[in-house]
Amino acid sequence: MLFPKKAKHRKWQTGRENPEKVGVATRGNKVSFGSFGLKALAGARIKSNQIEAARRASKRYIGKTGMMWVRIFPDRPFTSKPAEVKMGKGKGNPEGYCVPVKPGRILFEVDGVDEKTAKEAMRKAGTKLPVKTKIVARKDI
Fold it and tell me: Which domains can be identified in the chain, with CATH numbers?
């Protein structure tokens, strides 16, 4: 799973409760490397294990010939308290890392395979993520 080599702060502040109301992505919103991409239609926090599950599912379908790019990286730590613990007594321990995603962000890109294979691979990746997604193609200018 993905996680940063070094973090400046062990625990981050929580931030907004509803990541869907943050706005739209202004960077990372175009297909840059591949021919097809997977675009987020809503805001969410995607954990590193969800990114890895989506990457594995689509890469397995693409095979050796296709190339794949992961355009997001989980660098935000999230905490949680153990099960059946009473309220209070401070913040929970760091459990892992996540990435806050805004609507319009390109999550994955694929190249080196035909359109049908690429779309099916992106569909499989989208089912592993906690956000609604859309398959987009590169606009050749």
Answer: 32-137 (3.90.1170.10)
Q: What is the gyration radius of the CA atoms in the chain, in angstroms?
A: 17
Given this model, what pLDDT does residue 141 score? Answer: 41
pTM: predicted TM-score of the whole model, two decimal places? 0.91
Q: Do the Cβ atoms of 103 and 22 come closer than 8 Å?
A: no
Residues with pLDDT less than 50, the chain:
141
141 Cβ neighbours under 8 A, 6+ residues apart: none
Contact at 8 Å (CB) between 61 and 117? yes
Q: How many CA atoms lie within 13 A of 93 on its CB side?
A: 4
